[in-house]
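User: Ribosomal RNA small subunit methyltransferase G, Ruminiclostridium hungatei:
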Amino acid sequence: MDKELAQLLKAGALHYGKDLSERQISQFFIYMELLKEWNQKMNLTAITDDREIVVKHFIDSMSILPHIKDEKLRLIDVGTGAGFPGIPLKIINPDLDVTLLDSLDKRVKFLNEVIKAAGISGNNEISEIKAVHGRAEDYGMNPQHREKYQIAVARAVANLPVLLEYCLPFVKINGIFIAMKGSNTEEIDNSVKALDILGGKITKIENLELPATNIERNVVVVGKFRQTPTKYPRKAGKPAKEPLI
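Assistant: Predicted structure for Ribosomal RNA small subunit methyltransferase G:
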């Protein structure tokens, strides 16, 4: 384990109010090695430098920790890709019950390998982590998942109006959806109609810089104040082709 990288990881977590144990740091390193190994076989990330993985994937995933209470909450990571931010959130907060949703079966196999190898599967049914293969439009209609989560998160998946249709159907009333965005906030202005239709309201837009970098991010927190109409999300592909704007 690289001491300098371990220190960077620890400092990043402390910046967001979490003190990582040796075990948690070790879990992150196992994750990083598997990410690099599997990335040679399939496209998981364009970021392959160790330091960049720590900063742009792990610490970036931690940036939403201030919006997640330390409780046994159910969280779904929609379009999780290589597991960001869902797996880092689970490593840091083992009490979270995390569902990782991705539309590519090969990525789901990778996620399951990480969960197993890093030993983050959870020790009870209340706070487990599982990777599932499917599209947000289909899972959002599934009674086992629809309005069953206190928190939905998505990182760099689509424009905000599209993301709202993917993610708000999963969120319980009084729950939140957290959209992790880059420096551009233009799409927020185009989200008024989608928010109104789907039962959401932006409660916070947090502009931040990742620690030890000048990388700018925006975290958009959307509260859910009423049920999403049953016809949403629309059929697979429709939200992206005809966004609610």
